[in-house]
Design a protein that fits this description.
The protein contains 13 helices and 4 strands. By secondary structure, it is α+β, with helices and mostly antiparallel strands.
């Protein structure tokens, strides 16, 4: 939904207008068409205006030269938004302020969000002076669009994690880059909102800090994914040790049980070490003691043989032949082992039907 009260405009993520389509039916569009006949490109407008008054973008770059390259990239991103909407040659000078607000809102609504932000709530506002500055300063208008495009493209790797809470974002723009203020926090009022502001005394630009944090989060997520993949390799290796000849559906049941129980039938961990001596490992060792060193295929090559061995392992776990002292860690591992056998049997039973 959009509001134009008190010189502010607001855009909710759930509302995605079709670019500048809404503007095309206004009287301002007719004026824009007439103005576009001047064949003055966006870059020519920028050059013409820069002769008379310094852009808010140039002022910021002059004060913060270390940010100049990034600001320029944001302006270019905003110009791409304009090109995508065929708005490069639309004259803002011939629009009323209300027409310009509607026109610019269409541009903002055309900027997509990364899929990881799909459940977030986003609200943007612009002050009256901000509207005036954008309407008369093409570079600043492009910067606001480019910043928005950059911000909405950020991928949050934690959004897919269990228990993640969507965020509520607000972006407030004034008549200069320094006046920009962005805040975010979990929806529902929990936690303290994050705060990012572009201001003269910042030691590190908020957007540099944001992307540094997001990069660290991405790297951490990648490390976690790599560890999970490594653990999955050991889970599969454990299966290959006890069931090299088992059919694919038994292997699939094994891997699904691993995911639910967070362990495998051998007690092999993600680092390749054993958490404890499991009952399937005991059966494998018994075969080796009998001299069957070349045959450690305890699950066999059918669903039925896998069920038989798993039932025996579960029975031996429930009714040990002799009591034994176990550490807390080993006791917890045996609880997970019992859960694995239970889940594995359930899935094997479904295959046998």
């Amino acid at each position: 939904m959009n509001y134009f009260n008190a010189g502010y405009t607001m855009n909710m993520y759930q509302y995605m207008a079709g670019g500048t389509e809404a503007y095309k039916n206004t009287a301002g569009a007719q004026k824009a068409k007439t103005a576009s006949a001047k064949n003055e490109t966006f870059s020519e407008v920028v050059q013409r205006k820069s002769k008379y008054e310094e852009s808010a973008v140039d002022k910021y770059k002059r004060k913060h030269p270390k940010d100049a390259l990034h600001v320029d990239s944001q302006v270019r991103a905003g110009q791409r938004v304009l090109a995508k909407n065929n708005a490069e040659n639309v004259s803002r000078e011939d629009m009323t302020m209300e027409e310009y607000k509607q026109f610019f809102t269409g541009l903002m609504n055309s900027i997509p969000y990364d899929s990881s932000q799909r459940n977030d709530m986003n609200v943007w506002t612009i002050s009256e002076k901000g509207w005036e500055q954008m309407k008369n300063d093409p570079q600043y208008e492009a910067w606001v669009l480019g910043y928005t495009s950059e911000d909405r493209s950020v991928h949050n790797p934690w959004a897919a994690m269990p228990g993640y809470s969507p965020n509520y974002h607000t972006e407030s723009f004034g008549a200069s880059i320094e006046e920009h203020l962005g805040q975010s926090g979990p929806m529902g009022g929990m936690g303290s909102p994050g705060r990012r502001k572009t201001q003269q005394d910042d030691e590190e630009s908020w957007w540099v800090r944001r992307h540094r944090i997001m990069r660290a989060m991405t790297e951490k997520a990648a490390q976690k994914k790599a560890a999970q993949e490594k653990a999955a390799d050991y889970d599969e290796k454990a299966f290959d040790i006890v069931a090299p000849n088992a059919p694919q559906n038994v292997k699939d049941a094994w891997m699904e049980a691993v995911e639910e129980a967070n362990t495998n039938g051998l007690g092999m961990q993600g680092n390749g070490m054993m958490s404890h001596i499991s009952q399937m490992m005991v059966q494998r060792l018994n075969q080796m003691l009998k001299g069957e060193t070349e045959n450690t295929d305890i699950l066999g090559n059918t669903v039925e043989s896998a069920i038989k061995v798993t039932k025996q392992a579960l029975y031996n776990l429930e009714y040990p032949s002799a009591p034994a002292y176990r550490s807390i860690g080993a006791a917890q591992a045996r609880i997970r082992e019992r859960e694995f056998y239970t889940v594995f049997l359930k899935k094997l039973g479904a295959l046998a039907q």
